[in-house]
């Protein structure tokens, strides 16, 4: 690289540019141009459109829009009770998706990390829901939740617990938690795999030394495994928060926000505003808030990782 830079500078000073370097740079940009074109057309341009529309009253596909400044954002958090309800549901959804799922995934990973007969089979079982189509997952669980012929109520009746049978997706108080259960079931395996990958990087000598010093399994997990999995845990949390804030497909396919608005989440509300009510400007402002929150979370995670690496070097 140094030799190439020196050659370029020498050629520039003499008024003659090295032909090979120029050709390589041109070839590089020509090869990169299609990817940049698609990225600009499919990502950057739509994102710019969302940002601009968030400050307007854009309505549907008519193209008519007027600049309204921060009115959309003000209305969002002060004069939209339906959105506030959706935010409350999203908070409950996020608690289970982030806190509960992360803890359960970590405990399962600890168990699977131990040498056991059939360990690979158990890993495959937990990871299997990840590779199943969301539509297939929703169809299967919707059939299981069916209040009349669903396998859950049928099983409860067969074991003498028919009194516990419920209309799982039709009950206003149960529908949200039923959907949360499905989403946790389908996403749990991914967190387990990430934790297992992190545990595989922990040197066996460290945990063995802890056992020799008399540390029990709980002490080893608390004092060694968890601290060494800080970056891994951060990654799992960031992905879980990302998934919770963007949760849409499972909820929309199973309940479409119902019954009533009991399962209405932030993203289903955004979809309703943009593509049902044609309030593109308002929906764009809602999308912009999510984008900013996700960028902030990613920035915070990167900063924590940088501080940890700096502390390790110190």
Automatic annotation (TrEMBL):
Gene3D superfamilies: MetI-like. It is found in: Cell membrane. Keywords: Cell membrane, Membrane, Transmembrane, Transmembrane helix, Transport. It is a multi-pass membrane protein. The chain crosses the membrane at residues 27-48, 91-112, 124-144, 174-197, 228-248, 280-300. Residues 87-301 form the ABC transmembrane type-1 domain. Its main location: membrane. One of its GO terms (cellular component) is plasma membrane. InterPro entries: ABC_transporter_permease (IPR051393), MetI-like (IPR000515), MetI-like_sf (IPR035906). Belongs to the binding-protein-dependent transport system permease family. This is Sugar ABC transporter permease. Pfam families: BPD_transp_1. GO terms for biological process: transmembrane transport.
């Amino acid at each position: 690289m140094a030799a190439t830079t020196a050659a370029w500078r020498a050629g520039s000073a003499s008024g003659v540019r090295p032909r090979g370097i120029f050709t390589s740079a041109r070839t590089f940009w020509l090869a990169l141009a299609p990817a940049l074109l698609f990225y600009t057309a499919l990502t950057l341009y739509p994102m710019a459109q969302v940002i601009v529309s968030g400050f307007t009253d854009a309505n549907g596909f008519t193209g008519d829009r007027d600049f309204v400044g921060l009115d959309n954002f003000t209305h969002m958090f002060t004069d939209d009770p339906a959105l506030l309800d959706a935010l409350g549901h999203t908070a409950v959804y996020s608690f289970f998706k982030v806190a509960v799922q992360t803890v359960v995934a970590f405990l399962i990973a600890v168990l699977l990390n131990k040498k056991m007969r059939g360990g690979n089979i158990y890993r495959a079982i937990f990871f299997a829901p990840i590779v199943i189509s969301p539509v297939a997952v929703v169809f299967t669980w919707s059939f299981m939740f069916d209040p009349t012929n669903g396998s859950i109520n049928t099983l409860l009746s067969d074991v003498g617990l028919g009194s516990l049978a419920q209309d799982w997706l039709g009950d206003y108080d149960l529908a949200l938690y039923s959907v949360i259960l499905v989403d946790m079931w389908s996403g749990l395996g991914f967190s387990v795999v990430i934790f297992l990958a992190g545990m595989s990087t922990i040197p066996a000598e460290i945990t063995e030394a802890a056992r020799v010093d008399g540390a029990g399994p709980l002490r080893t997990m608390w004092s060694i495994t968890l601290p060494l999995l800080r970056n891994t845990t951060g990654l799992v949390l960031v992905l879980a928060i990302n998934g919770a804030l963007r949760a849409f497909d499972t909820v929309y396919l199973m309940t479409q926000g119902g019954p009533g608005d009991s399962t209405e989440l932030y993203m289903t509300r955004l979809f309703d505003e943009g593509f049902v009510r044609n309030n593109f400007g308002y929906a764009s402002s809602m999308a912009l808030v999510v984008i900013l929150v996700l960028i902030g979370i990613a920035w915070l995670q990167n900063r924590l990782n940088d501080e940890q690496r700096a502390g390790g070097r110190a």
